[in-house]
Amino acid sequence: MPFRRAVSVVAAAALSIWTAFVPVSRPAAAEAASPQGASAVVFAYDRFGEDQNPSISIRIDQFEAHLDELTDGDYTVLPLPKILDALRTGKPLPDRTVAITIDEASRSAFTEAWPRLKAANLPFTLFVATDAVDRGSPAHMTWGEIRQLAAAGVTIGALGTSTQSMLARSPDQLAADLRRMSDRFQAELGRRPAVLAYPQGEYSLAVRQMVIDQGFTAAFGQQSGVLHPQADPWSLPRFVMNETYGSADRFELAANALPLPVSDLTPDDPLVAVNPPPLGFTIADGVGDSSKLACFATGQGRTALERIAEDRVEVRIRDPFPPGRARVNCTLPAADGRWRWLGVQFLIPE
């Protein structure tokens, strides 16, 4: 369906800030092929109908509204590996291509999300944290249930050994955890995982390199944004959906988003050494009128922008961020009431 809800630049960027707890993507095909080139929106869910955990859970009525939008609207929901292959090989993707991902392998994902996704015939990817499954946690799936999903065609990816941030572990411990997690996949599923989601969406350049060294072909954060061929395969964005930020309006806005490709993004490491971080990037050609770009920083609202050259933008973040996660989200209006999105998450040390 046509995108119904046109919003102002300020509203769009504010909705992008809603993507909670999020790092970022850095450094005759089909009659409905994307007019903007190959791109895809990836949604990230965790738990379902767990009202006691609203920051990581979506209400069932919200989730059903999302599925209704995807099945009734003009979207193409594809398995994540097919999207990644298209981006890697230059194959076209239909306009409004979408992927669904679920983190953690919770019990509610199996009992609430899986039956609804199966009934809607929508593919999805499950990112598994292995330690909770190995412990037999009643809040999580069993390996037998994960094998059942895999046999039904669900893509099984890795979240690591736990939902703890990878930045909380030493390099040696993280390397050992990644190997142990991969070994558990091999033992229980007969193969090692190829795609990973960073727990809590947090990573640094050092963590990213370790993930590459362990053989993963792609890795996802939780920053808002849209997949496109120039995106870093190990820093890919997703739109996070939870109870607070799972409205139908926000879902439709994100599902219709277009990429905002940039290069030479600085600082290149999400784990910042200078606060406020000196954020800058070069906007790709052909994305529209960059003078309409608007960026918003966590807790500071709309930021000042300085154009160093015609396509080079530096974001002037006014104040230092407090320790923890901080975000800058940038949007640019596109045709038909749609928006280009770029999200950057910074991790501020104590």
Automatic annotation (TrEMBL):
Keywords: Signal. Residues 1-22 form the signal peptide. It comes from the Bacteria. GO terms for cellular component: extracellular region. The keyword rRNA-binding does not apply. The keyword Signal applies. Residues 96-350 form the NodB homology domain. GO terms for molecular function: hydrolase activity, acting on carbon-nitrogen (but not peptide) bonds. InterPro entries: Glyco_hydro/deAcase_b/a-brl, NODB_dom, Polysacch_Deacetylase. SUPFAM superfamilies: Glycoside hydrolase/deacetylase (SSF88713). Is involved in generating a small heat-stable compound (Nod), an acylated oligomer of N-acetylglucosamine, that stimulates mitosis in various plant protoplasts. Belongs to the polysaccharide deacetylase family. This is Chitooligosaccharide deacetylase. It comes from Azospirillum palustre.
